[in-house]
Amino acid sequence: MSASAPDTAAKPARGFRIDLKTAGPLLALALLVLLGITLNENFLSYSNLTNVLARSSFIGIIAIGATFVITAGGLDLSVGSMAAVIAGVMIMVMNWLIPSFGIGWSVVLAGMASGILLGGVAGVFNGLMITRGRIEAFIVTLGTMGIFRSLVTFLANGGTLSLNFNVADVYRPVYYDGILGVPWPILVFALVAIAGEILMRRTAFGRYCAAIGSNEQVARYSSINVDNVRLLTYILQGVLVGVAVLLYVPRLGSASSTTGVLWELEAIAGVIIGGTTLKGGYGRIWGTVVGVVILGLIGNILNLQSLISPYLNGAFQGVIIILAVLLQRERRTS
Amino acid sequence: MASSVGETAPIILAASRVSKSFGEIPVLFSIDFDIRPGEVHAVIGENGAGKSTLIKILSGLEQPTSGSISFDGQTVVLPPNGAAEAMGIVLIHQEMNLAEHLTVADSIFLGRELKKFGFLDVREMRKRAAAVMETLHVHVDPDARINTLSVADKQMVEIAKAISRDARVLIMDEPTAVLSVGETQTLFEQIRRLTARGVAVIFISHKLDEIMELAQRVTVLRDGQLIATVGTEALTPDSIAQMMVGRELSNLYPPKHEPDVDAPAVLSVRNLSALGVADVSFDLRRGEILGFAGLIGSGRTAVAEAIVGLTHRSSGQITLDGKPVDFTRVSQSVDAGLAYMTKDRKGKGLLLNMGLRPNLTLLTVKKHLRAGFLDSASETRALERAVRRFDIRARDASVAVGRLSGGNQQKLMLGKTMESEPDIIIMDEPTRGIDVGTKQQIYHIIAALAAEGKSIILISSELQEVIGLSHRVVVMRNGRLAGVLEGAEITESEIMRYAAGIKQSGNDERISA
Amino acid sequence: MKLAKTLLAAAVVVGSLGGIAVAQDKVTIGVSVPAADHGWTGGVNYFAQQAIDRLKVTYPNVEFVFASAPDAPKQIADIEDMVATRGIDALVILPGDPDAMTSAIKQVKDAGKFVTVVDRQLSINGVENLYVAGDNPGLGANAAAYFKEALPEGGNIVILRGLPIPIDQQRFDGFMAGIEGTNLKVLDDEFANWNRDDGFKVMQDFLTRFPDIKGVWTQDDDISLGAIEAIKQAGRDKDMFIVGGAGMQQIIQAVADGSALTPVDVSYSPAMIATAIELTTAHLVSGVQVSGRYVLDSTLITKDNAAGFLDPASPF
Description:
The structure holds three protein chains of three kinds. By secondary structure, chain A is an all-alpha fold. Chain A has a single domain (42-326), classed as Orthogonal Bundle (ABC transporter involved in vitamin B12 uptake, BtuC). Chain A is built from 14 helices and four strands. Chain A has helices spanning 20-39, 46-71, 79-101, 105-131, 137-155, 165-171, 173-176, 184-202, 204-214, 216-221, 226-252, 263-273, 285-303, 313-326, and strands at 160-162, 178-179, 182-183, 254-256. Chain A has a two-stranded antiparallel sheet with strand order 1-4. In chain A, helix 2 runs antiparallel to helix 11 and helix 13 packs antiparallel against helix 14. Chain A is globular and about 55 Å long. Chain A starts with 19 loop residues before the first helix and ends in an 8-residue tail after the last helix. Chain B is 32% helix and 26% strand. In chain B, helix 12 (376-390) crosses helix 13 (406-419). Chain C is of the alpha/beta class. Chain C has a six-stranded parallel sheet, with helices on both faces. The chains are: A mainly alpha, B alpha/beta, C alpha/beta. The A-B interface holds A 1, 3-8, 10-13, 198, 201-204, 207-208, 210-211, 214-215, 217-225, 281-282, 334 and B 22-24, 310, 329-331, 333-334, 340, 342, 344, 347-354, 356, 358, 362-363, 365-366, 369, 372-374, 383-384, 387-389, 391-397, 416, 441.
């Protein structure tokens, strides 16, 4: 009985075959970029690329939170509505604070703090209902999706909440300016993505998320506090929705009941395109980033051409999404 | 009848020079195998010997790379995906293939439901299911949901399903791995009834005594090669074991070291009550292996789970090294040096879709943090250590552990448990469904741990194992402690007497034992 | 002269028999509108509520049942409930999806209720007693007229459309007919779903794609607000102007202030719902004869007349 170390050298005859499961989303991204270049010469221009990335950053930041939730075997359908209500409350808080704080960064910072705080509170609520209330995540977040959406409609009195113009001028640079020509939303998106990747790969929390999503019982028997880890994923999701809204509000300075409609589906689609398994147990942040950028590029490319009738935009999106996932499907073992 | 059943009957199913490779890896080499109606033909071999592949080929789930299959004397290509059931070849899987939320009647008729006017004829199916259960002398409500049944009853449902399909060849992959002694006997009675009716049974088991009892012939496989097919009358358990591992298995159980009878109790349980456990008290000494015997469902696992805080404890005191403890989370018991290794390695022990490393360190991730971040080099070192210590064999560390053999999974789980450096280890069925060679390794590991001064609670349904390893044996019955055996008392018959309720010891004796 | 309610309803069905209700008699009017899913429908909800509050004071014997529905099935359920359980005598409805709701509205009419349809044309003619609408082709035509005037030499323009429903098509057709024969060149049109965020995205991409744009027609002020931000971001707000529609306060204010980017707007006021409720109430209470079509003109709002369109209380 020889003690044999794991034989890491033995991977016969695999050679240089591209591992589609890993490279699938990148391949889809490359194909889209090629398509974009052929359709329009401005596609690769710096301003177009920053436009698309900045636009994708809200969904991207939310989707990074969703990657943790989904990896741990959960789901959060409420993020779009949550974004709307956070945007609404931030605007109201800032408008309300103007008399006491005056026009300036202090008002904006207070608004930002309220946004993050509200996101965290919303996440705590979702998480507690799911972990302590023992209700299916789908049902809880379907419920809060409706609650948040109605709340913003109510706050806006059915119309639109607009940020005071003078404050909006102070706040505007947070979306439109940046460092060395890279807009803030892209920088924040990148930072969140890097932090997310480290959190997922290199911390006990990330490992626990994957373990819980893979098999909750095993996690419990392995002394993991399943409820707390789950709860944390929803709080993280809520806080990241808050961060996304911080970047969203300065763009148009308004929020209405249409803000963030269907963001939850875009975020989930981005996560899945990126290679995270919908039923949990495996997640990768860089994949989510690629997935969200793919979704952003699809919209961009559709607007940059006139070959496809605008009536068929949805079909084109659907084809690309299915293709991206098809490219990385698990080969059934023979 | 003699012409249709037994030794003179024509062969019903045969494999001739069958080989199988997965990709470039050969797993079966030119195997000959046959079975007659009314016969029980056992297939044995260590994990990875090729048993599963052979039965998959015999039931059409895999096609042989070369060689042929004949059925009723005709060379056939068995239809894939279980369609061979229509021909009367039924495979009962090791992991049972019952939909957990269907009823018993639904399960028996799954895929060939009876219909009336295009709608399901629920009443007729229920009636017929009850009739089949009746012929099997099994008392299971046809309306019961599968997930409410015991493992043994599920097995009976599988057999009822096979019978209702007029199975002519029944292939059973380790049906007794999860059954108690009594349940195994019931199963054997069913098998004998079936063979009397001319059904051919191919039976896979690691338990040599069962094979001696049930089978007429035994086919031994080792490393994908056919070693021998012989009649059981010419065999002894020792000779079968030798053929399986290709070497002498003189000392399956390591010699017991004498524990220090004056050693302090490291774990004391007094009047423990929890779901499925009533008023259980016992002591575990330093360096001791304390066996827990009893029928399945007698509450042994429930005791362990209540101690470590996996389930709620309704009353009772637990002291660890003289200090009272109250674990409400597993992490607390692990921190206190008390680890529980589950019997359900696939459902509760290992993350089957992940590699070896994350599984090994899952219980102890925090030990591998450096400045808050996971140190993969430290994890790799831990894996190398565990691989050496427990002889874990895997193609490479990234292979999903679901693809490892049962023995290697078990050794990995043992490694995972030991990563927390516990002083007390509760091992629940540590050798379930693994081959003799690996069992022997695990027995030696357990004995060595005890010799090092670790204290071990060994829960096992294999009496031989409990007897061969334990210094003392606790027998449980219906959630209560039926008796504690010591020294010469530890015999199979004595344990069974307590387990079956024929004998019961007084309260005082239990605690002082 | 006292008439039973049923008699009154019968009289209404007959049309112009001149059934006149007396002040003590209770009359119930149902008002059904789509939920506030964008600024304009938000305005509809506001003006409907406002009209109801005002009329309740004027006519204490008139009761209103107000419902706002997010989709067609809900709106159908709303009006069925109004007939079945609230016993309405008349229905004022702005159908979210007119094609899907035509038969349901016809049933209300067949049950003998007075039906006023607002803004969106049903798929069968003659169902409603009264049709109150804004002028969709006129909205397109008015905008087209301004483009012709502002760009006499012609030039490149882009169009941001709403949602693919008939109103959008009518506006689009009206605009295209209006610029026919000029040198105005429509580079492309894309749907921006009457939504600011989509207006921003589509405009950003148009700006990337077309280096030379003289004018933008969005036919809706919500889309305009998104597009304006995109244009400002690209620093091309001196190169082009943008014409929306519907008369949102924020845009009217900009027009009044003489903005070069939004020199004009075209009215398509959500207050039309108030007009419809008032006409219907007047008919039921005092027997004023109303029937046929009331089309509220779409007018061009310029710097000169903008003041008349400003209403600080309006949420739209």
